[in-house]
Amino acid sequence: MNDEYTLDYAPSAVQHLGVGLYKQLPQALAELITNCWDADATKVNIHIDYTKRTISVSDNGNGMSHVELNEKFLRVAKNRRMSESGSLSPKGRKVTGKKGLGKLALFGIANKIQVYSKKDGYKNAFEMDFKVIQNTAENKKYHPKSLVDNEITNESNGTTIIINDLTIKNIISVDKLKKSLAKRFNMYSKDNFFVTIEDNFEKKEKLDETDFEQSLTPSSLEFTFRFPEDFEPEIESNTALRELADQKITGVVFTKKTPLQSKSQGFCVLARGKLASELSKTQFSDRANDLFYDYSTGYFNIDFIDDDLKNDYISTDRQAILWESNENLLLLRDNLNKLINIVQNKWRLKRKHEKKKKQDITIKGNGKANEVFNSPNLTESDKKVIEQVTDVLENDDVKISKDEKNEVITKLVEITSTYQKDNSVYKELIPSNFKVPKTVNSKIRRLREEMISAATNNENPDRFILTQGLLLRAMLDSSVSSLITKHLQEFHELNILNNYVKTENDAYNLKLKDKLNDAIDYLDKKKKLPTAKSASVLKNEIGNQQLILKLDQLMHDSEEWPKRKDLKDGWDTLGPLFIKIFDYI
Question: Which residues does 290 contact at the CB level (< 8 Å), separation at least 6?
């Protein structure tokens, strides 16, 4: 048996396949972490000594014997899935290693690597020196330096790799390293694959099942779309989505309330839990220029893309999927693009719905706007303009404070006709519960609208009182006349009208005072008077106010009109009576 360790590859290949593969620490360490996964490790510890500038990665995996170190670790470009037990580890994990090049990536960040491995009571170790490898002739084999050779140990199985003589200028901080590693592997687990990162200053971070998704989740998360569970109806009816579900593809799309930074936009692909393609807006379509892509990020698990034992569809640096390798991959990419298009449509609908909710909250949160939206005088044009402005104010690109937004809405509301009507002298004059039902004839409804319109102009108080008085008399005359003519026969049956009122025209020709009294008697007979007062008491009250007399005077002498207080008192008495009359006309 030859006890020497031998790097089974041309030394120059280390330069091309290793040093050129990764130049950053997180990517290189990610390769070691996935090796730990393939070795069935449940715990991995990364220790960084910033003072000594060394890094160690230890796991409690299967470990390797002297022979296995030579045949597995030092054998470069060996397809372990074809030469060993296939694509599963001894404990049944889907292995991520395939090409055997990842270990060489360490020479992109350091010159010396020590490997210690314990298996079945024996420890073995060796050191590789990149500078010595560089100086090894092409026709020679490089033999790593033996450090430990089949030493008996009572330590548990596992492997530790120590990285010395670092060539990178600055060593990434523990917290930043965690964030970077979290994005490159999604099989972390407290129980099954727990990774800890610590340094010589006792700072410690951990990686478990929560970290991968957290690394992608936007800080201001808006919506989350999970495939396939959120797309069951679409899967039933859409061939592309059904094919994705049949292929056991899973994934998540996150959207942010505001645009993401460009480096956080797009989607990544994982195969067997390991990053296979980094975030890209054009991951599934070269024409991904829709606004949606500025707000979205996410990932998809596509294990079968790495199942082929002979062909590789993932670039060596694991930055991209080689989609154009065959027709099946092109179809897969097209199906994923169709899924993203459906997500876009869902996103637009949800944003529209959420924006409407925000609009409603904004309007309700503004006292004057809320008052106008609940006003019986609200016009469609006023409603439309307020909604249009609040819609613009809720756009992501409008950068104003909540107070400024509220001020804009307040000023807008104050110039609407609805607000002016509600806050005119009309509001003070006429009872707030006075409304004309839509079932009442159009003439009476128009009279009310004219009252409101006239009340918005307060420049001439005398003219306002005159106008209101004339309109009140017209509404009172029209209302009681409509009541009598509609129920003329019943009026006679109740002995309310005199015999000379035989036709509708006769009713219209009655004096306003007589018609009003007849209407009061009718409501009294129907037990529908608005108050507990008797008909006679109500008539006396109206008579004492002399309101009808003053309203009649307006018809003949515009210089004589009731005072404001007279109109207010008259409205307080007649308003409830109008409401009862409206029930019968």
Answer: 344
Q: Mean pLDDT for the chain? A: 87
**Is the predicted pLDDT of residue 409 greater than 50, yes or no?**
yes
H helical segments located in 300-416: 327-365, 367-373, 380-393, 402-414
Tell me the pairing of strands 274-280 and 266-271.
Answer: antiparallel
Tokens 């007589």 belong to which residue? 514
Ramachandran angles phi, psi of 91, nearest 5° = -95, 10
pLDDT in tens, 22-58: 668 998 899 899 999 999 999 999 999 999 999 999 9
pLDDT digits (tens, 9 = 90+) for 123-158: 999 999 999 988 888 888 889 999 999 999 999 999
- DSSP string over 149-204: EEEE--SPSEEEEEEEEE-SSSPPPHHHHHHHHHTTB---BTTTBEEEEEETT--E
* Crossing angle of the two packed helices 461-486 and 547-554, in degrees rounded to 10: 110
What tens digit of pLDDT does each residue of 262-285 get?
A: 999 999 999 999 999 999 999 999
- Contact between 535 and 496 (Cβ < 8 Å): no
Beta bridge partners of 297: 254, 266
Query: Alpha carbon of 281 to those of 39, 268, 285, 300, 421: distances in Å?
Result: 34, 9, 8, 13, 53
- Give the per-residue SS3 of 84-140: CCCCECCCCCECCCCCCCHHHHHHHCEEEEEEEEEECCEEEEEEEEHHHHHCCCCCC
Sequence-distant (6+) residues with CB within 8 A of 426 are: 451, 452, 454, 455, 456, 468
